[in-house]
Amino acid sequence: MGFWDWTKNFFTENQETIYVTQKAIENASTKLNIKMFGIAMAIGFIASTISKCEFKTYVGNEEIKGSEYYLWNIEPNINESSSQFKRKLISQLLFFDEALIVEVNGQLLVADSFYQHEFAVAENYFTDVTVKDFTFNKSFKMSEVMYFKSNDMNIRQLLVELINGYEELNGMAEGKYKRSGGRKGIIKLSKSPSGDKKFQDELNDLFNNQFKNYFEAENAVIHLSNGMDYTEQGGEATKKSTSEISDIQNITKEAFDRIAQAFKMPPALLRGDIAGIGEITDNYLTFCIDPICKILYEEVNRKRYGKEFLKGSYIKVDTTSIRHIDIFSISEAFDKLIASGGYSVDELRVKVGDNPLNTEWSTRHWMTKNYSDIENIEGGESDE
């Protein structure tokens, strides 16, 4: 590419007058990618939240910690911990609206890509299943895998189309900010550089090196050859304004709010606001986390347990471990749950992250004397 072809991207040429800006010299026209940043933040937030969930296993309605429990909560495969595995699973599910787990030699693997062959009545199957850089040279029947589907529509594509409009507005705000903040000047040439290689080389050095150093330095001078006249442009146009920064912040906030709503997250949570965090967290768990955990619960149970589910053998995704619990702040509630017979001491100790005592009395359910059967209360009143 010739010098003048290159400069057309950065300068406005008017006969032999060239308008120079600091940002053009630095070639720093970086565009904020709001959509990918916001979507990645939201998905990462949700995936990290669900990775904290405990997958409890039950046999005959009794909680059991065996090989299935170990598989989901400690080591699903030799290369990933359960947290890494769950984060990848949820990230695939939310980003692509679908995710696939295959079992190979007793290991659970989340596929990076796959192709599903769908049928109306016959069993679907999957081909081109790839995990990292390995592609399986076999097909997997639907009954052999765990296939998770979140929506009928691709949320990512809808978000991209929506956020593109915000990025256009943001690009305008960025351009306004750069124009208001950059130093500007005009170079007038007494002759055209066309056909004069030496003069073109001098211009190359001037724009690529000398002006860059001149704009970056706190105090500087610059040498101009004969036939060049540079005039610094001052005035209000070169002063930075906080309004441009506010424009960018407001547009970014609006885009983040739309992304959060698409994932059913409270927008304040994605923005990092802490006001009313208790209520925000409750909404987040109810409308965002619980539906995703329901998808996991249904597919894992129908594929891993089948109709044994009816006999009390199943996996439960326990979301209570998501919240951080301060035992001193819930001491009254803790006492009430024991006094009402709702939970044993050991059950509540597990809920708050302590080890169970595993004693005869700690596994029993207790009820204080002020609780009584309603029939006894009515009978007592009629005897008076």
Tag the structure with descriptive keywords.
alpha+beta; 384 residues; disordered N terminus
Distance between the termini: 105 Å
Mean pLDDT: 78
Largest sheet: 4 strands, antiparallel
Stretches where pLDDT is under 50 for at least 5 consecutive residues are 1-31
Q: What is the percentage of strand-forming residues? A: 15-25%
The radius of gyration computed from the alpha-carbon positions, rounded to a whole number of angstroms, is 32 Å
The count of helical stretches stands at 13
Q: Fraction of residues in helices?
A: 40-55%
Order of helices and strands: HEEHHEEHHEEEEEEEHEHEHHHEHHH
Gross morphology is elongated
Q: How many strand units? A: 14
- Biggest sheet strand order reads 1-2-12-13
Given helix and strand content, the structural type is alpha+beta
InterPro entries: Phage/GTA_portal, Portal_HK97
